[in-house]
């Protein structure tokens, strides 16, 4: 569990930290600090960019593998998170050049689920 002074974070506290780190493009820090050990990462069914992963280490490797293929970042935008209950939704727009796909523009919704002060699910819609 993500904790502050032995207290489990509320969803609002998780969102505040998520927002702070996302605004600085610190996505690996989000994983390190806020993801549960058994987090699941789900891509769209026919994604050519990445596959689903389960477990903090596997989700980290998935992200590192993708980032290692990025040749150029032309533009990124992340919206302010929208929170309802234990869910966080974020709009993300990226314009990148990535091997082997070339220049790719992704407009996606990133959905996160929080339980016991940790993100247990990230799911991407693009």
UniProtKB/TrEMBL annotation:
UniProt cross-references to Pfam families, sorted A to Z: SnoaL_5
Domain SnoaL-like: 9-126
Protein name, entry field: Nuclear transport factor 2 family protein
